[in-house]
Amino acid sequence: MQKLNQTPNIVLAEIITIGDEILYGQVVDTNSAFMGTELGKIGIKVKQITSVSDDAAHIVQALDAARTRADVILITGGLGPTKDDLTKTTLAAYFNVGLKLDEQSLADVTEIFKKYGRELTELNRQQAFLPENCLPVRNILGTAPGMWFEVDNKIMVSMPGVPFEMKTMMTDIVLPRLQQHFGLPKINHKVIMTIGIGESFLAEKIASWEDQLPPHIKLAYLPKLGSVRLRLTGLDTGTDDLETEMQAEVDKLSELIPEYIFAYGEVSLPEAISNLLKEHYLTIATAESCTGGMVAQKLTSIPGSSAYFKGGIVAYDNAVKVEQLGVSEATLETFGAVSEETVSEMAQNVRQLLKTDIGIATSGIAGPIGGTPEKPVGTIWIAYTDAHQTVAKKLNFNRTRELNMEFTTMNVLNLVRQSLPEAFRIG
Amino acid sequence: MQKLNQTPNIVLAEIITIGDEILYGQVVDTNSAFMGTELGKIGIKVKQITSVSDDAAHIVQALDAARTRADVILITGGLGPTKDDLTKTTLAAYFNVGLKLDEQSLADVTEIFKKYGRELTELNRQQAFLPENCLPVRNILGTAPGMWFEVDNKIMVSMPGVPFEMKTMMTDIVLPRLQQHFGLPKINHKVIMTIGIGESFLAEKIASWEDQLPPHIKLAYLPKLGSVRLRLTGLDTGTDDLETEMQAEVDKLSELIPEYIFAYGEVSLPEAISNLLKEHYLTIATAESCTGGMVAQKLTSIPGSSAYFKGGIVAYDNAVKVEQLGVSEATLETFGAVSEETVSEMAQNVRQLLKTDIGIATSGIAGPIGGTPEKPVGTIWIAYTDAHQTVAKKLNFNRTRELNMEFTTMNVLNLVRQSLPEAFRIG
């Protein structure tokens, strides 16, 4: 065990996933990315990820190789009740131990069957038998308990491959236990969500702030679909109050780029907009052309969205823009469907029709066909309106249909955040 | 080289991905699943997938280990122009060869820069220098050419990690060359897309057909989100016309389960519905409550959807159901929003309002809150209507909000396929 106020040697981990379905491409391995992220957050570095077949000799080979490189080996998959699930028996043989009944695991699996109103089968009962040398890791969401082994100063943990079972086990049990075992220093994280500025421009804008960060606070840029997450990782040196110190850095950053920050913490843009609307008791309606329903879909993807989302009109065809949304034919004829005038009317009219505080609208050419020399594919207008104002904005994208739609949706949601007047925010 | 009419030994492959971003969980490795699937289709089995760090010694260790197990090693990543991209120099050192300029690669990278109106930088010019012992693999979509090595009867191919560059290289060059190199027998695939029946029930229903398949035609079940893909893989034995033989098997299957098949080939349900509507010159409108715009979004995700999709109304709030969709208040009061009566009116009214051939509607409780004892979370009504009929269907799901919405969307699209009258199909 190392002292908390001392920077430890780097702890290295390896991940081994077991199962032909990953190798044959039937399943994309998303578990490893989750584990890599979470291990990183407590200061453990993943050195290698190995996916092997449902084959005992191959599993053993991967274990032996991983032990030469890593301090921690996390294994997922192969814990089901059927005969092609080999992980448990392979581990028992590897450690040369027998299996014994774990009462807590039996109680857990019995409970799960009871919940679904079914009798415990013998195959599932056998899932509660675990290698004698392991510390069981409770699985409250499934029938396969995890196993924690300590051998030659190495930690090996076997978990189910079912993502939500593995994630719960990692968060509740495995990560805290690893932190404790290796005496890892306390690590603190702050996430700042930004939108509307590319990674390199953002880096330039905050360079002076980044440079003045103390050595025990590191910054990572994590870009994704037009949004950049900034993650601060602080190592507790025991000298200052880390939480206070990090919050002070976040505050400095907030003053530097207030217009780009839409949330603090791991919050998606639709969630942030939902929170904003709920907080101020505001309602919203959508009028969509080129996004075809995606804006409404993102807003309703959040539980409890009926508190602020009344509804929307997908006016794909111009006749629907006129007849359902009441856009004037003159506007459509003079300016075209993809114009500031049309998109503004769409937003204003849907707000009035659905009697909401806010109306938002999209109209553009998502592609891959439908462009003209004056309005090429990717030309998109978005609008926001409330009782006081209407704001319209032109976007130009040069992506696939899907990405053009995604970016437009992100932008119109961001426009809500940017346009909401201070007076409104009081609710 | 083996004769085509002889079953060859199994060719084994390994995939090595290079790059810290996968290990640290910043990127999910989707490349490997693509490669596993495509290799499987030409009869090559993936034995292991290894993700290693941007570190020369670690890359070499992985290469050495892979060579003890596999005939083919496919490497992705680490081919960018910056100094942390180590793959090319590591491979040259591994094979103890120098780099030489490949004129075709230089022409390709110059062309790419020209397309974006930029001058070729020295860093990018260096990307056209390749290990002397490699056969270049053209990259028409990016600046890093691939490399094909043949050493000790093993094939090693290095490709960029950018998914669309790698996929194009695999499909156009690497897979055909592997087929030729190993004299792999011709393999034929037929995909049959089913929906509305679970994997185990489907397996039971088609067991007798599956059992009578000749040994050189294999069946795989590939379930995904309520749909099961059936993939037939036929090995050309040189005795019969494989294409004719396989089509005959597909025809037999079609007679056995016509109601569950929505397409032949890799076609998504929204695509299949789009094709059906376009083929018969039919138009459609959507009225959505619990799916919140997802049905419209899926329909408009298909390029050219303006040919059949006029628009939709997302009637999340009951007031919108009454005022925009014209659902009678009496219906809502008597039967509730989640009822056969309401969902039928929604479909009928949106069809009339938007003047389309078909109207579809959804109304239900997506969760996680909003359920009652009589109508628990997951209780959902869907409806289809045309000039001749209205069909409504009750669904019960017990999933997350997101999955309840996804399954409802799949089901209402499937209802179009199931309900479309023969008379209509003539167009």
In short:
Chains A, B: Belongs to the CinA family. Chains A, B: It holds the Pfam family CinA_KH. Two copies of one chain form a homodimer. Helices cover 39% and strands 25% of the residues of chain A.
CATH top level of the largest domain in chain A is Alpha Beta
Helix content of chain A: 25-40%
Oligomer: homodimer
Shape of chain A: elongated
Strands in their spatial order, largest beta sheet of chain A: 2-1-3-8-7-6
User: What is the arithmetic mean of pLDDT of chain A?
Assistant: 92
Biggest sheet details of chain A: 6 strands, mixed
Tell me the Rg of chain A in angstroms.
Answer: 27 Å
Which chains have the largest interface?
A-B, 69 and 69 residues
Low-confidence stretches of chain A: 1-7
- Strand content of the residues of chain A, in percent? 15-25%
The CATH topology of the largest domain in chain A comes to: Molybdenum Cofactor Biosythetic Enzyme, Chain A
Helix/strand/pairing category of chain A: alpha/beta
Number of domains of chain A: 3
> Can you say what the CATH homologous superfamily of the largest domain in chain A is?
MoaB/Mog-like domain
Distance between the termini of chain A: 53 Å
CATH architecture label of the largest domain in chain A: 3-Layer(aba) Sandwich
Number of strands of chain A: 17
